[in-house]
Amino acid sequence: MPSPRSAQFCLITALAVTAALLPGPAMAANAAPVKTRTRVALTPTTVAYGQVAEAAVRVRTKKRRPSGTIAVHAGRQHVSAEITKRHRARIALPLLNVSATPYSISANFRPANPDRFTSSASEATELVVVKDATAPRVRVRHRKAKKRVVVRSRIVSAHGRVPKGAVRVELRRGGVQVRSKRIRLDARGVARAKFAKVRKRGNYVAFVRFAGAPNFLGCQSLTRFSV
Predict the structure, then answer these.
(1) Residues near 23 by Cβ (< 8 Å), separated by ≥ 6?
(2) Which of 15, 99, 109, 130 is 20–30 Å from 49 (CA)?
(3) In angstroms, what CA-CA distances link 56 with 60, 86, 87?
(4) pLDDT tens per residue, range 167-217
(5) Contact yes or no for 126/174 (Cβ under 8 A)
């Protein structure tokens, strides 16, 4: 028959084994995901059409380093990028038209491991898009044999986008308009106006005017030539 001390020892050993097999607090319930905060800043906050605006996004946590995807929303468009080890992402915004300005820009963070981090959204900030400046590049050719004047106009923008629309081309002599044509710009932003039977000798001016377009400012030019 076992002694009372031996029985007590067996009971303590059994309790210790049972405690080791039971799940601890961390195993019994998973830890809550770490809360994140997302912020977005724009550089610059006002851009011309065709100019690149950049969104700087930062995801903050009290501890650990989150990983995941940042999605920046600009109107109905959005662009995404992976977050860096410094909890940040720099994202170039898509091309935005002037017609819907100002745009509400916001960022959303989606963690790669949602069991460890929460998703979060930034407050919206505003981006203003204005019309881009344009300039005409005009070349005039007079063909004496054919009595013809060709005015080639190319409309260029400050940020490289090709303007759409039409130009008004006028020939003036002595301050008086003698010919006029409206020519649409092609895919390269070029318009060619051909004037036949220009016989009268003298000093002329080729006046080119681009009235502008939804995303572009207008411009004009005067080019002098002789016949």
Answers:
(1) none
(2) 109
(3) 13, 12, 11
(4) 999 999 999 999 999 999 999 999 999 999 998 999 999 999 999 999 999
(5) no
